[in-house]
């Protein structure tokens, strides 16, 4: 059954079209329903819209604001209300009106005037976003009540939405008044994530029973579908560029040397699913607990062995372009470096930690091989390296800390993508230079879920969250270039660049 006013498919139980607001009438023989003013049952099929109405399948112009008061829009408002605590907290922090200017400069006339005006503007914006957040929370509660009363949605999902919006309103009040009511923001956001899945991903609406397992499980296929669509678009663009390059080379005559191999090589590069991480969160949690226990008992002396143990686990569960990695060293070889890193970090009040990180990455990479190589325990590979600079990592770390504190960690995926790109571009495995093509926007939903579950579980979920981050990072890491993919028992064609 379709709405004859907007052409959308309808549920047989709906009395009002949730998309355009037209009344659904049961005036056709056999119980056939139609929607839209002045429509009879014989004209209820799509394509027989009454004169003056929009054609089915097309967007009808909204002449009456009441047309916006639809079931679908009420559900969207209920979803938005659950998340109001997050932007309120961020924007109130941004518009707090404080500028870190030394007191001696504040007495200068121009500076004092600027600070005074800035404080007024910030105060106004702070008050505006506060009122807006509270109003939106109230509207969300009203929307849920409308769904219950007008659209007769009586399942547990709509009552969960009511509870989520109520918690969000209490959380906003807590943020405004600086009391513990802000903790209500956390359950509101968790429930909001479930509502997003029901309304926007599964298209199930808020009617029926709540099934959080099924709702959260829907995120996986959704992100995979988005990821595949993005990858396909990237491959199409790269294929078009490759075709243009080949056409430019042969000018309609002879093919470029190694062109067939280059086309085959491209399929083995980039984000095509051949790079992945298959470690498990429960294993990482065990290693982290063991490292914390051993490190505490030995006052940090045994940490090199714990670090190398975790590095071995991480690399042995890492596959780059279809080739698994392995790590060939134990903590004994790193002990001297560990003592140096600790001492210099203490002397420099932690500043040297950035250089310690890049030193560790060099140690790790020179003992990293492909698993199918003949390298034994303790072997060193000069062609495996990391050549990033400590000052660069210090800058990225400061940026991550600054942006994370300003945005309450929400913008961290974008900084993590920058660091992933930097780290991969400075890494080589047995001579194969790596690259990274991860899109932070695709990972954003998973990252927010990691933050929420880690907070709710008092940090226990952090190990599973780190595994998810590793899967995103490794899944978008590949051998740079198109000229030498790893194809078993096949050498590069003539004309490929070595």
Written account of the structure:
With 498 residues, this protein is of the alpha+beta class. The chain folds into 3 domains: 1-67, no CATH class; 70-217, no CATH class; 269-479, no CATH class. It has helices at residues 71-82, 85-94, 103-106, 109-149, 156-177, 185-201, 212-217, 219-250, 259-266, 281-297, 303-316, 335-347, 353-366, 390-406, 412-425, 440-456, 462-475; strands at residues 24-25, 34-35, 276-277, 318-320, 323-327, 368-370, 385-386, 427-429, 432-436, 477-479. It has a 4-stranded antiparallel sheet. The chain has a 4-stranded antiparallel sheet with strand order 7-8-9-10. A hairpin with a 2-residue loop joins strand 8 (427-429) and strand 9. The longest helix is centred in the N-terminal third of the chain and has 41 residues, at 109-149. The relative contact order is 0.07.
């Amino acid at each position: 059954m379709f709405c004859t006013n907007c052409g959308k498919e309808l549920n047989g139980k709906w009395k009002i079209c949730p998309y355009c607001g037209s009344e659904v009438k049961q005036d056709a023989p056999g119980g056939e329903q139609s929607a839209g003013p002045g429509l009879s049952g014989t004209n209820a099929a799509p394509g027989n819209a009454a004169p003056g109405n929009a054609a089915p399948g097309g967007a009808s112009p909204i002449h009456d604001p009441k047309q916006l008061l639809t079931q679908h829009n009420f559900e969207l408002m209920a979803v938005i209300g659950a998340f109001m605590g997050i932007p309120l907290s961020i924007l109130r922090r941004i518009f707090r009106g404080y500028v870190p200017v030394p007191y001696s400069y504040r007495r200068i006339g121009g500076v004092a005037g600027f600070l005074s005006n800035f404080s007024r503007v910030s105060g106004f914006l702070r008050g505006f976003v506060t009122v807006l957040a509270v109003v939106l929370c109230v509207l969300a509660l009203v929307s849920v009540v409308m769904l219950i009363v007008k659209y007769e949605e009586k399942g547990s999902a709509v009552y969960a939405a009511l509870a989520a919006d109520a918690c969000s309103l209490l959380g906003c009040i807590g943020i405004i008044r600086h009391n513990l009511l802000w903790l209500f923001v956390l359950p509101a956001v968790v429930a909001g994530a479930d509502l997003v899945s029901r309304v926007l991903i599964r298209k199930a609406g808020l009617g029926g029973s709540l099934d959080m397992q099924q709702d959260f499980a829907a995120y996986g296929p959704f992100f995979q579908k988005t990821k595949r669509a993005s990858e396909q678009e990237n491959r199409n663009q790269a294929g078009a560029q490759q075709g243009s390059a080949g056409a430019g080379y042969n000018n309609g005559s002879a093919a470029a040397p190694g062109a067939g191999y280059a086309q085959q090589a491209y399929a083995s590069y980039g984000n095509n699913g051949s790079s992945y991480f298959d470690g498990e969160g429960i294993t990482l949690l065990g290693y982290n607990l063991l490292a914390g226990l051993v490190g505490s008992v030995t006052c940090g002396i045994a940490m090199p062995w714990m670090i190398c143990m975790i590095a071995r686990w991480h690399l042995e569960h890492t596959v780059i372009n279809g080739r698994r990695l392995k790590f060939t060293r134990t903590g004994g070889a790193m002990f001297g470096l560990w003592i140096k890193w600790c001492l210099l970090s203490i002397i420099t009040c932690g500043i040297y930690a950035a250089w310690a990180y890049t030193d560790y990455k060099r140690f790790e990479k020179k003992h990293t091989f492909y698993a199918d190589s003949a390298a034994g325990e303790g072997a060193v590979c000069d062609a495996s390296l990391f050549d990033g600079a400590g000052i660069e990592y210090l800058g990225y770390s400061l940026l991550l800390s600054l942006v994370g504190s300003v945005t309450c960690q929400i913008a961290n995926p974008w900084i993590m993508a920058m660091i992933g790109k930097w780290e991969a571009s400075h890494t080589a495995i047995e001579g194969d230079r790596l690259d990274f093509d991860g899109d932070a926007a695709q990972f954003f939903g998973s990252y927010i879920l990691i933050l929420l579950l880690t907070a709710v579980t008092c940090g226990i979920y952090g190990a599973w969250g780190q595994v998810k981050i590793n899967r995103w990072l490794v899944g978008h890491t590949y051998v740079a270039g198109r000229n030498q993919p790893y194809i078993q028992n096949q050498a590069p064609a003539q004309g490929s660049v070595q």
